[in-house]
Amino acid sequence: MTDRYAVIGNPIGHSKSPLIHKMFAAQTGQDISYEKIEAPLDGFADTIAQLRGEGYKGCNVTVPFKFEAYQLCKQLTGRARAAQAVNTLLFKDGEILGDNTDGAGLVADIEQNIGCKLLFKKVLLMGAGGAAYGVIWQLFNAGASIVVANRTLDKAQQLVAEFASYGTVFASSYEALNGKQFDVVVNATSSSLSNKLPPLPSGIFAPDALAYDMMYGKQTPFLKFAQKQGVTQLSDGLGMLVEQAAEAFFKWREVRPETAPVLAKLREVK
Length: 270
Ligand code: NDP
Fold this sequence. Notes:
Blueprint: E1 3-9, H1 17-28, E2 32-38, H2 44-53, E3 58-61, H3 66-72, E4 75-76, H4 78-83, E5 88-92, E6 95-99, H5 102-113, E7 122-126, H6 130-141, E8 145-149, H7 153-163, E9 169-172, E10 182-187, E11 205-213, H8 221-228, E12 233-235, H9 238-253, H10 260-269
Bound molecules: NADPH dihydro-nicotinamide-adenine-dinucleotide phosphate.
């Protein structure tokens, strides 16, 4: 019998997750269906209850429901607990188990697809919203030291206070970055959605730095800025999207799909 999965968000129309999971299923011979479902903004818990009632095996969760998903879970993985947000739910033995695969997705993309090892690297993480919370724990795990810069400094300070016990991390305003250099600069803000650039000083990129924008699908102001600064390693977040999906697929099916052909296909149809 076909096992059913879905991605829940609002809005959800643009989601590439069904395409990615269908390619994973075809590649690994798994008999699953995967659809996108738009839950009403005040109806996430009801939507999950309905899916469980209909026998779904799990789902992915995206904006704006990742924090609410976290609250619903009976059991959480360590990385979901650290992120305080959940993007993958597993419905098993009458319970809801929660994971967060965003950080693993980012690190796999940076280390395996791009080939940039994070051990001892200086990482600038821009943003202190859901995406930053979702990835910071995994960046520590990979051995990076981290500065979190955010437009609203309080939020960066709060994030840093919550994660200080995991490794070397400091909060910063954008102005205070002047004169500093980083090996990897990750844009985890939503600035690219509004075609804006976080107020980065010039000279922020160390030689051979990687500029990574978690937004995907277009040449963002941040990537253009990095290019003008002479950065040659530039990446959008499409690889992260595929890698976080692979991690969720593994969680559900205990089979690890190959991501490279799926990423190549998505780049082709973009
Ligand atoms: P949130 O709304 O939770 O946080 C937004 C963050 O962006 C805040 O820190 C905010 O700063 C900052 N910000 C917004 N506009 C600007 C600006 N013009 N200049 C500087 N900072 C700005 O969003 P998320 O954290 O959920 O998402 C962030 C991005 O990550 C999105 O683009 C999303 O698409 C992407 N993402 C990609 C994934 C992937 O798989 N590739 C997975 C998850 C997210 P302030 O606090 O001052 O308001």
